[in-house]
Structure formats: structure tokens, C-alpha cells
Amino acid sequence: MEAAPELFGRLPDGRAVHRYTLTNGQVEVRFLSYGGIITSIRVPDREGTAAEVTLGHADLASYQADQGYLGALIGRYANRIAGGRISVDGRDYALDVNNGPNHLHGGRTGFGKVLWAVEPRSDPAGEGATLRYISPAGDGGYPGTLAVRVTYTLTRENELVFDYHATADAPTPVNLTQHSYFNLSGRPGSDILDHELQLHARHFTPVNAALIPTGEIRRVEGTRFDFTAPTRVGAHIDADDEQLAWCGGYDHNFVLDREAGATPTLAARLTEPRSGRVLTVLTTEPGLQFYSGNFLGAGDGAHRRRSGLTLETQHFPDSPNHAGFPPTILRAGQEFSSRTVYRFSTE
């Protein structure tokens, strides 16, 4: 890690926001204490030339105003919850509604909009940092106080590892993820339509017009959602399909064909043919949200539509309201634990 963090700016209340740099000589990762936001990932192409592969902003004010969650650490609950309503042990809770009629990514002041305590660390696995935040009871409307610990580690094998941990003093839903937008071309402003994506998912969860899962788990075979073999992102993105029309492209949860156990298994492989860059995603999570950047640029024009895509490892959207989805309630005395790996390489 860089010897000392860099002052990136100050919040309106005067608190300092610092930027930290992780490097292993090939890959460089920069992130903020504000929102745990990853502002930059630079990786080499097949010729050894490093370039930026994520979308970001130049200053703190832009991140504070950002509505696209660029690079943000997401919680308490990643993705949407219908109507901002949940019931835990028979008691109803009203959450922040910040995405039309729905609750999205923790509400108006989700984890991507708070200041995290950062502790740099180094061990044989690589360089990294542990980020900590305590979310008080009632935060975003959620029950219980939640203590969260997230570790970022850049390994010598060009892997960026995310270890998520959380404990609570009362039952509460938890779903944590990372929201970096990738464009592996290294060409600012280009789109991601020629990237090739493979998802280890034979099913996805269709949504309604409000982008909330219907509860169905549908096979991808024979649909425009079949990425079981490497497929151009743009191959079917504008097809005449109700699911694609509602989302303006892809913004769907894929049900991963993962093995049982605590070891991360293969979830996705993203390649960019011209540069040869490859991003492989492994996770312990049951789902992955593939979002093709359909609403980027709306409102601020900072980034073009579809100039980046996200591969958000997660539990399913709106799980607290679907008994057939993997459960997300964390109870007192339990620990939420999850690991995701971004592995960078070339071909």
C-alpha cells in the first residue's frame, strides 16, 4: 500500500476523506474512505500496457452527487426491495424509498454514502485494508444495529478480494456487494457492447415493470439471457423482449450454478477482444446482478450510456419478500460472511 493515504476532499461537516492506493507492480487499485468507493483499477493489456478499466469521478463532490453508485460498497441491502416494505418476525418495517416506488441499495444514505474507518494491512496474501462501519438501528429504516467489516486485498496473483463480515444485535436483512463499473477496453467513453460475457448461471429471476423479481426462477436456455457460453454483451441487448424493454437492457439477477461450501466458485468471465483483458469473478454468493449501464449519463452526462457494466455478486433482490429465495435475515449471535474475487488476466 502507498505509504500514506492522500487527502481527497472534505465532507460538508469538515471530516476528511482519504484515497488509498494498493499496488502489486502490475495492478493498481485506488479507493476512498467515503463509501468504500473504488475510484480506479488499472490493469495491463496483452501487450503489457496498463489502462483504466473502471468508471469513476474526478472529485468528491461528484461522488456525493452520483446516483449511479460508481465503485461504491453497497449495503445494508444491495439491489431493490419492493415498496420499501419488509416484515421481520411478524413486525413490519418501512425502508427508505429512493428508486421510484422501491428501496434500492440501502436507501438515501446507504453504505456508499457514509464515511468508513480504514485500517491498512499487509500479510503474505498481499496488500489491503479493512473498512469498518456501524449502522445504527433505524438506519434507512432497518431494524437492529449492524457492525460491518469489509476487507479489500490485492494479491500478488492479480486478484482483488472482497471479504464481507457483519453482526447484528437484532434480526435484520443483510446483502452486501461492490458496484464497480467495468470497461476492459481501456478506451474512455467507449461502450461495452463488444465485450464477451460468460455467466455460470442456467437460471435468472425475471422482473416486473417496477424491476422487482416476480418470484419465478426461469431457465435461460432459449432466451436472450443465455450467457452460459461466451456471448457479446450487445448481441441481444436491444431485442424485442419485455424483460429487456423494462430495464433498457440487462439489469437482472442470475442464479449461479455454484457448489455448496465456503470456497468461492466461478460466477462470470468477461473478456475484451481487442485488449485481451479478462476479468474472472468468483464468489460464495448465490446470485449475480448483471447491469449493462443502461441509465448511465442520465442527469449528469458524466459517463455515456452503456460505457460500463457491473457484475454485482449478491443474494437475490427483494429476498425478504420471497420465501422461495435464499434467506437474508441475519440474527443476533450469527455472523454474515461472504467472499468475492475479481481476477485480472489476459488472453
Q: What is the CATH C-level name? A: Mainly Beta
* Number of DSSP strand runs: 27
In the CATH hierarchy, the third-tier topology is known as Beta-galactosidase, Chain A, domain 5
Instruction: Name the helicity range.
Output: under 10%
CATH A-level architecture: Distorted Sandwich
Q: Would you tell me the structural class of the helices and strands?
A: mainly beta
Q: What is the tally of helical segments?
A: 2
Offer a concise description of the structure.
The chain has helices spanning 60-65, 242-247; strands at 6-10, 16-23, 28-32, 38-44, 50-52, 72-74, 80-81, 85-88, 91-94, 103-104, 117-123, 126-135, 146-155, 159-168, 172-173, 177-179, 196-199, 203-205, 218-219, 231-232, 251-255, 265-272, 277-283, 287-291, 310-314, 329-330, 336-346.
Verbal overview:
With 347 residues, this protein is mainly beta. It has one domain: Distorted Sandwich (Beta-galactosidase, Chain A, domain 5). 3% of the residues lie in helices and 40% in strands. The protein is built from 2 helices and 27 strands. The protein has a 9-stranded antiparallel sheet, with no helix packed on it. A 5-stranded antiparallel sheet has the order 1-2-3-4-5, with no helix packed on it. It has a 5-stranded antiparallel sheet with strand order 19-18-21-24-25, with no helix packed on it. Strand 8 and strand 9 (91-94) form a beta hairpin. It is globular and about 60 Å long. The two termini are 28 Å apart.
